[in-house]
Design brief:
Blueprint (H helix, E strand, L loop, with lengths): L2 E10 L6 E11 L4 E9 H4 L2 H4 L8 H11 L2 E3 L1 H14 L4 E4 L2 H16 L10 E4 H7 L5 H10 L12 H9 L10 H17 L13 H12 L2
Parallel strand pairs: 1-5, 3-4, 5-6
Antiparallel strand pairs: 1-2, 2-3
């Protein structure tokens, strides 16, 4: 059974050139069974106080470090993180890599390579890339049932569109409306793998192509139900 690598990053440095300080992920198969877990803190970035002041979740750093100590998250250089990722890909013969918002995570890894090494190539293996967000917006959330659920529970953006984050999607498929992401690579990758497994179990043709605005499909269905 083929394996898929699902990963998630947390970043500092702003949206235009995000720098990865946290990388977590899992190796799963098409049934959703997880064969391997990993979680790395990137020393080059997380060890720079000036950069970490720009982290999106900077206020959570004390909690983050407590989790690093308690859960045994490995702190290593970015170069070693990339070596570990390559080793995992080779060990499990992985030909597909997935992330919830693949475009962003790919951008972050590329920007970090460019920042540290003046070379944006973070992966030297030939694999397919899929976006779980795109897949979820094409299948799980692109339904009238989801539109009504989001409307009923107030999961609507300021612009009047259904929210389509991994957190909200996970709430929908599990029925846990109070679930909150950790915003740490390891834990977030696990819920993203859960979402991917839910899509695969449907055994329907799904568009996983990374794109900028997969949420538009969900918004269109929502407007068909509620107008606007």
């Amino acid at each position: 059974m083929k394996k898929i690598l699902v990963f998630d990053t947390e970043t500092a440095g702003g949206f235009s050139a995000p720098l990865v300080y946290d990388v977590g992920g899992v190796v799963m198969d098409s049934t959703g069974f997880i064969h391997h877990r990993f979680h790395y803190a990137v020393l080059d970035i997380i060890g720079n106080p000036h950069l970490m002041d720009t982290a999106y979740y900077a206020e959570k750093m004390p909690l983050y470090w407590m989790n690093v100590q308690e859960r045994g998250t490995t702190v290593m250089t970015f170069a070693d993180v990339l070596r570990k990722l390559t080793a995992i890909i080779d060990l499990y013969d992985i030909d597909t890599i997935a992330a919830y918002n693949f475009n962003f995570d790919n951008k972050a890894l590329t920007a970090t390579c460019q920042y540290l090494y003046e070379n944006g190539n973070w992966l030297n293996r030939k694999v397919d890339f899929i976006c779980i967000w795109a897949g979820a917006c094409d299948s799980i959330m692109n339904t009238q049932k989801y539109a009504r659920w989001a409307h009923k529970n107030g999961f609507i953006s300021e612009k009047g569109n259904p929210q389509t984050s991994a957190e909200v999607c996970f709430r929908y498929i599990t029925g846990d409306k109070d679930f909150q992401e950790e915003h740490m690579g390891g834990g977030d990758a696990e819920i993203e793998a859960h979402i991917l497994a839910n899509i695969l179990r449907r055994k329907k043709k799904t568009d996983f192509t990374p794109c900028a605005s997969p949420w538009r499909k969900v918004a269109k269905t929502y407007k068909e139900v509620f107008g606007g």
